């Protein structure tokens, strides 16, 4: 009896336990529903947010397109936008913002001069871009004081570019471009000559670069004539430092008659008119050099 | 009763799960669309722009943001003004389209239109940026320049050279110098027309290359100042000023004067000594038979 009662108590306890457990699970079910509901709601908010953003994007694009059009055609055509007035001002600003960003980016690529005001408008930093055949190369910077007169305070222009005399010859106090344009011409011609030299070394392993200088205004190359295997020394002089084509081409060879032969006369004028790395391709094709 | 409840719940769960799946798909589609949007037009929404976007979409009070953004726009307007002045180029529009955007390489198509003084241009090109370590390498390809060159004959050979060599910077540097030299000419021509209206006329307008000098009492004798702005294939801009004469044969036979037949050469020496303005003015004085020199 006692055993039975003990059993009875134990089984009662275990029954209670089972009941408690099973009571626990039903409340778990609704919380799973709650969880899912919350998740669905969060997704809905996300979806609405995305939809709104995409809508705004569309309106911005439309606004921007009409802004671009207005700028080119100069005619006011008020666009009909389905934007509530509260946000239209903000949207307009956003569209103008993207337009300004793009225009500034374009200036950066095509203009050649990038300018930033420094020291709260007291100074100016101009960055001059160089490029050759579509490849952008080094940028050079000029730091300038605006007051009392425009003055170059710091620069990283290579020392062999005559910055000082260009500044003296210019009319930079009234028109800064009278300094920047010739300077940019010098820098771009230098960058172009340097790039040509680099291309000669990369593309023409059979041509030996015997001599070159920092300004890349002198270049001595050695060619080999295919059959005779004679060596030809070719010196290119670029006396006009604002150009990237030589002003003088001179050949030297053991075979004294070679420089005066019609083929080499032609090569000489080719080198005067074509960037050297391209001229060498033609000369190779003609079979004049290895 | 308990069983019924759990059955209901599992029904709910199924419905909700289906709904969630549906929503997830919808969100994913919208996200893709948004990414495409960002690719299509360079609306890179960062910083204040991102804030402004969330204000527009979140229907929050936008007043504060408007102020921030208008200040930001003002700064950019200021930058653009400075950049326009520095580069001597006014840009009207710039549209870009991203053609390729992978980890290291970005290829964008640009269409930029604007004007340099009176010269209107439109350029199209591809810009590719490849990240190489710290810096990125920028290259221009497929350059196409559209300009009305009908009265700029000597510009067209330069243009085709530039398109071939994709030298965008050279194009704009030359365009700017060319335009400056044309403005010099216009200013000089206009100045003389205003100063000597009875002698000077500009038959092709003040932007044309020709100025005619003609004394009112000598209608048969005309001098032309032909002032052209030459552009070499390399982009070198040089003004070329010549004096041409139109004097009746008979007058020349009757008065075989050295001054008239040698006028063109004499003018070139004047140019060398005095510079264009003074040289042209001295010819004007001679034609107007002015006593007060």
TrEMBL record, chain A:
This is Centromere protein O. It is found in: Chromosome, Centromere; Nucleus. Residues 33-60 form a coiled coil. Its main location: nucleus. Signal peptide: none annotated. The keyword Nucleus applies. GO terms for cellular component: Mis6-Sim4 complex; nucleus. InterPro entries: CENP-O. Keywords: Centromere, Chromosome, Coiled coil, Nucleus. Transmembrane segments: none annotated. Belongs to the CENP-O/MCM21 family. CDD domains: DRWD-C_CENP-O, DRWD-N_CENP-O.
UniProtKB/TrEMBL annotation, chain B:
GO terms for cellular component: chromosome, centromeric region; nucleus. InterPro entries: CENP-P. Keywords: Coiled coil. The keyword Phosphoprotein does not apply. Pfam families: CENP-P. GO terms for biological process: CENP-A containing chromatin assembly. The keyword Zinc-finger does not apply. Residues 6-40 form a coiled coil. This is Centromere protein P. It comes from Perca flavescens.
């Amino acid at each position: 009896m006692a055993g039975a009662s003990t059993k009875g108590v134990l089984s009662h306890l275990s029954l209670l336990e089972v009941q408690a457990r099973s009571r626990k699970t039903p409340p778990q079910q609704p919380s799973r529903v709650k969880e899912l509901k919350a998740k669905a709601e969060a997704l809905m908010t996300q979806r609405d947010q995305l939809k709104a953003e995409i809508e705004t994007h569309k309106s911005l694009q439309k606004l921007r397109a009409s802004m671009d059009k207005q700028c080119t055609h100069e005619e006011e055509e008020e666009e009909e936008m389905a934007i509530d007035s509260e946000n239209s001002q903000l949207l307009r600003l956003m569209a103008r913002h993207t337009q300004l960003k793009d225009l500034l980016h374009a200036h950066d690529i095509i203009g050649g001069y990038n300018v930033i005001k420094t020291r709260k408008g007291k100074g100016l930093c101009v960055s001059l871009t160089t490029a050759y055949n579509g490849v952008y190369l080094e940028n050079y910077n000029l730091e300038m004081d605006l007051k009392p007169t425009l003055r170059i305070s710091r620069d990283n222009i290579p020392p062999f570019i005559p910055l000082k005399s260009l500044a003296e010859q210019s009319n930079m106090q009234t028109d800064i471009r009278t300094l920047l344009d010739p300077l940019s011409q010098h820098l771009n011609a230098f960058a172009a000559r340097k790039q040509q030299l680099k291309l000669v070394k990369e593309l023409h392993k059979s041509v030996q670069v015997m001599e070159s200088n920092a300004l890349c205004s002198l270049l001595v190359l050695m060619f080999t004539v295919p059959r005779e295997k004679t060596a030809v020394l070719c010196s290119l002089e670029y006396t006009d430092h604002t150009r990237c084509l030589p002003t003088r081409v001179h050949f030297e060879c053991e075979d004294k008659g070679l420089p005066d032969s019609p083929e080499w006369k032609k090569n000489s004028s080719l080198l005067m008119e074509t960037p050297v790395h391209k001229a060498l391709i033609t000369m190779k094709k003609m079979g004049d050099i290895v | 009763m308990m069983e019924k409840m759990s059955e209901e719940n599992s029904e709910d769960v199924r419905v909700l799960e289906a709904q969630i799946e549906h929503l997830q798909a919808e969100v994913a589609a919208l996200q893709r669309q948004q990414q495409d949007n960002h690719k299509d037009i360079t609306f890179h929404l960062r910083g204040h722009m991102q804030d402004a976007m969330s204000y527009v979409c979140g229907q929050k009070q936008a007043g504060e943001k408007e102020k921030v953004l208008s200040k930001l726009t003002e700064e950019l307007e200021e930058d653009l003004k400075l950049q326009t002045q520095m580069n001597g180029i006014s840009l009207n529009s710039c549209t870009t389209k991203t053609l390729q955007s992978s980890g290291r390489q970005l290829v964008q198509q640009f269409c930029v239109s604007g004007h340099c003084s009176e010269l209107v241009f439109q350029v199209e090109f591809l810009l590719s940026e490849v990240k190489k370590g710290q810096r990125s390498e920028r290259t221009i390809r497929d350059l196409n320049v559209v300009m009305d060159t009908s009265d700029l004959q000597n510009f067209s050979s330069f243009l085709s050279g530039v398109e071939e060599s994709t030298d965008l910077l050279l194009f704009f540097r030359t365009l700017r110098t060319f335009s400056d030299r044309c403005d010099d000419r216009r200013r000089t021509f206009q100045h003389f027309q205003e100063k000597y209206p009875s002698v000077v006329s500009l038959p092709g307008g003040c932007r044309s290359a020709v100025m005619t000098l003609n004394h009112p009492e000598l209608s048969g004798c005309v001098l032309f100042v032909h002032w052209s702005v030459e552009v070499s294939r390399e982009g070198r801009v040089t003004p070329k000023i010549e004096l041409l004469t139109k004097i009746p044969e008979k007058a020349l036979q009757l008065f075989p004067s050295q001054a008239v037949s040698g006028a063109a050469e004499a003018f070139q020496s004047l140019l060398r000594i005095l510079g264009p303005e003074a040289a042209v003015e001295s010819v004007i004085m001679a034609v107007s038979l002015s006593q007060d020199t």
